[in-house]
Amino acid sequence: MLKSVAKKAKWARARRQLTAYTFIMPNLAGVLLFTLIPVAFSLVISFSSWDYVTPISEIRFTGLANYAKMWGDQWFLASLRNNLLYAFTTVPAAMALALAFAYIVDRFCRGKPVIRLLLYSTNIVSSVVAAYAWQMMLSQKGLVHSMLRAAGVTGAPHFLGDTRWAIWALIALAVWSNLGYIFVLYMAGLQNVPADIYDACLVDGCNELARFFRVTVPMLAPTTFFIFITQVIFSFRVFTPVQLLTQGGPGTSTSMLAYYAYISAFRYYEMGYSAAITWVLFIVIFAFTLAQWKLQDRWALY
Amino acid sequence: MRASDAALGGMGGGTVGGHARGRAAEIAFTALFAAIGAATVLPFFWMLSVSFKTPMEIMSAPEKLLPAGFYLGNFGTVLSPRYGFLRMYLNSAKITGINVAGSALTSMLAGYAFARLRFKGRDAIFLIYLATLMIPPQITMIPRYILFDRIGLIDTHLSLILTGMFSVIGVFMMRQYFMQLPGELGEAAAIDGAGMYRTFFQIYAPLAKPAIVTVIIINFTWQWNDYENPLIFLRRQSLFTIPLGLVAFVDANETHMELTAAAAVLGSFPMLALFVAAQKYFVNGLVAGAVKG
After folding, report:
1. Chain A within 8 Å of B105 (Cβ-Cβ)?
2. ipTM value of the model?
3. Nearest to B96 by CA among B270, B247, B275
């Protein structure tokens, strides 16, 4: 009798476990098939030389050859350099502006919803439309050139076609398109700063700058930490503006890792090499994220 | 509104003088940010303006900020059957619709399981989920291409649906939400004899509406605007989604700035309309999730 009760309980537990698995199964199956297994497979082919046309059974493993080859590949080195420059200029610039904007708007401005809507608008359109909008602004017949001419500047470069200017045009585009999103996050963060800290600051005779740097900035450190990490990760993955506006050029002056990986795979059919490049991209992102986690305590200190 | 306004009066020391300065600051900064806001949307405004210009205007006076009139010919050209723009709307709507609904459902179920159910390997699997958030999607680009090529799904919508239905970020967000709901609700239901699915669908799922809206909005934005996946998986123009179709259109009409502008305006319209209609949810959702799709 007792035995059968125990057995029943055990059976019920097993059934509950099984039912629980049915909850995660639809998602897990998809993630497994279309993310986890491809990730593993990508690592495997990154150690091979494969042109896609050869049957995969005849794939040739070359060990670390792809990873070794990169360091003598000027195109790859330029992509890595550009990517680092791009990520570590766009993110701090967009964040600093967004934080200053959020502080001022929150404290001094009327019509906050309208300002928020205008700043955030760049995030609603697709990156394709954003890229074309900039192309039209920056073209020789565009508004920027006509404004420069009106201001008396002659011989302005063709920004997207100039080796020195093109990457800065992409950086400016990124600052413009990410600023609104970061602004919205900082505006939300500001609502959580307790009023009595500001009051205490006031009692201590804080001026406006001290109020901002000694209260707001430290209080928003967790928000800043989160935004910094996610924005850097996203900046390293940049693809669409590069592909649409400059094709990595002129020369290799705006090539970046995701774009170079795409070109290697779908123009030159160097599948192994392309996979290896995406893994380097991952390693860069991972190393950066890890370093930030380690420094996390320092972020929160004030 | 809050403390900041209360503190505003005290700005700069003396209350009366400070108040006047606060007022001046308010006017000056509001004007400044009206200008910054206007500058932010200037590229879109320029695009809209160009889309209303006649080809003649583009030739003769390309730099004029405003069009001479509301010329609609460019929109007519873009919408003419030869470019199949309407088809692309339908393609985008179909893929986005299926993926948003599918990922909301699978994220909800999995997020709930990770938050509220006990099963072997739960924490280990969740850790793997978290780790995949750091993996750049480009890593899976080639293997997915090979996989879909093998099973004959290259150049089908199914390839985009299969990759878009399973959102890891969605699972993460749903889990966070379900974690903060009280567990007693489910226990009470269990005592009343409700099964796991009934407990979920009748008690927890309705409570998770805000999180579901967030997941839907993030996925909608991401799916509707996605360019990289269609670029890799689709070939036939009749299957193109809006972003990919827009690029193809621009490549074919490169010299016609006014047509590019009209196509871009038309392509952005559904997303803009949705945003204006549901702005509150967009902003709340982004802040709650703090994830960019």
Report:
1. yes
2. 0.85
3. B270
